[in-house]
Amino acid sequence: MSSTPSLLICQALILLPDGEMLQGDLRIQQGQIAQIAPEITPTDTDKVIDATGLTLLPGIIDPQVHFREPGLEHKEDLFTASRACARGGVTSFLEMPNTRPLTTTQATLNDKLQRAAQKSLVNYGFFIGATAENLPDLLTAKPACGIKIFMGSSHGALLVSREAELEPIFATGSRLIAVHAEDQARIVERRKQFAGTSDPAIHSQIQDEQAALNATKLALKLSKKYQRRLHILHLSTGAEAELLREDKPSWVTAEVTPQHLLLNTEAYAKIGTLAQMNPPLRSPENNKILWRALLDGVIDFIATDHAPHTLEEKAREYPHSPSGMPGVETSLPLMLTQAKQGRCTIAQVANWMSAAVAKAYGIPNKGAIAPGYDADLVLVDLNTYRPVLREELQTKCGWSPFEGWNLTGWPTITIVGGQVVYERGKIYSEVRGKALQFINS
Ligand code: DOR
C-alpha cells in the first residue's frame, strides 16, 4: 500500500468553506488537511507542490455513476472509471446497482466493495438496489449510501414501478431512498405509439416530460406520507423543478446533471444516439428552468449519471441503441466554464459538486477545505481553455457528448486522501481510495 507523504501546497488560491478565497499554503499530514495559512514554511519532510496560478477546490463527490463492474466490463470497470475520475477531479463516487449481478444483497454489495478496494484510485460508495422482493436486504445491507429505486427506464428485477410495490419500501426503515423517476406504464404505452421510428430525437417524446413529472409526483407523495428521506435523481424537466419549488419537504433533495443543464433536444441532430439517455434531454426552455432552480437552491447538487456504452453499441439504430453517456472527466470543467462565463460562482460549483453532496449523504469529513477534513482536493487551472479531446479520455467507452467543447477549469492535480493521483496528464494508477462512510445509513 502506498504511504501518505506530508504534502505542502504553496501559493494556491484556496476556496474556504465560507466561499471566500485565500491566497496561501496548505499542509496535508496523514491524509488530512493539517494547516491552512497565507504562508507556511516548508520542513525537510514536506513534498512541495507549487500551485502558483491554480485554484484549490474540495475534491468532487459524484453521487450518481454507473461503473459497470461486475458483469459489463466491456463498457467500463472500476479501474478505468476511477482513472477517469482522477483526471476529472472526482475524488469520491456513489455507484448504482444495475450491474451483473444486480447489487441487491449484502453479498453482491460486499463483492463490489472488495473489487473497489483492489481497483479504485478514488473513494467509493455503493447503492443497494430495490426489487419488489428484497425489503429485508434494503433494511440491513451495509455500508450503502442509500436505496436506489428505478421507478422507470429499467427492466428485470430492478424495476419497481407500481405504487403497491413502492409503498412498502417507503413505509419501512429510514435510510435515504434515491429514485430514478420516470413513469414506466406511460413509457410502455408511448413506445407502442412511436413504434417503427428510428430517429433518436423521438426518445425525448416517448419518455416525455409528463412521464418524469408523474413519477416525481408519486415519489413525493409517498415520501410525504411516511416522512421518508427522498432524493430525486437527475431532474430533467422544468415542470418537476417548479413542483419542488412549490412543495419540497425538508427531508427531500434533488440533483441535476451537467447534460440536462447544458445539452437539449438540439443535440440529437449533432450527435445522434450519443445524446440518448434516461431521463432524456429536454427542450432549451427546460435548461433555463433547471438552471434557475439550481441557482435558487430548489435543486441541491450535481451528479453526472456517468453511464458509458461502447461506440459500437451506440451505433445501433434507435431504439436498439442503449441510453447513457459518460461524464466524470468533464463535469468539473464544464461547470467551472459556466462559472467563468458568469452564470454562477466558483463557490457555488464547489458546493453543488462536493459540500452539498457530503451533507445530503452524511459523508463525514469531506466536502470542505478546512483543518481536520480529509485531503481530497483538486487544483484547477482557470486561466487556460482546452477542448475535450477523444484521445485524452480515460473512460473505457472512449467518447464524450462534449467532444470539441472548449473548457477552462481542467484539473491540474487531483489528490485523494493526501496522495497525488493525477498530475498534469499523468495518472498514478497505484493509488487506492477508501470506502466512504455514511453516518445516517
Ligand atoms: O441513460 C441512462 N443510462 N440512465 C440511467 O439511469 C441508467 C443508465 C445506464 O446504466 O446505462
Quick recap:
The protein has 441 residues and is an alpha/beta fold. Helix content is 30%, strand content 22%.
CATH architecture of the largest domain: Alpha-Beta Barrel
What helical percentage do the residues reach? 25-40%
Q: Give the CATH topology of the largest domain.
A: TIM Barrel
Structural class: alpha/beta
Question: What kind of sheet is the major sheet?
Answer: 9 strands, mixed
Beta-strand portion reads 15-25%
Give the tally of β-strands.
Answer: 18
Query: Helix segment count?
Result: 14
Instruction: State the low-pLDDT regions, or none.
Output: none
Q: What is the average per-residue confidence, as pLDDT, rounded to a whole number?
A: 97
Task: Give the tally of structural domains.
Answer: 2
What is the CATH level 1 assignment of the largest domain?
Alpha Beta
Shape: globular
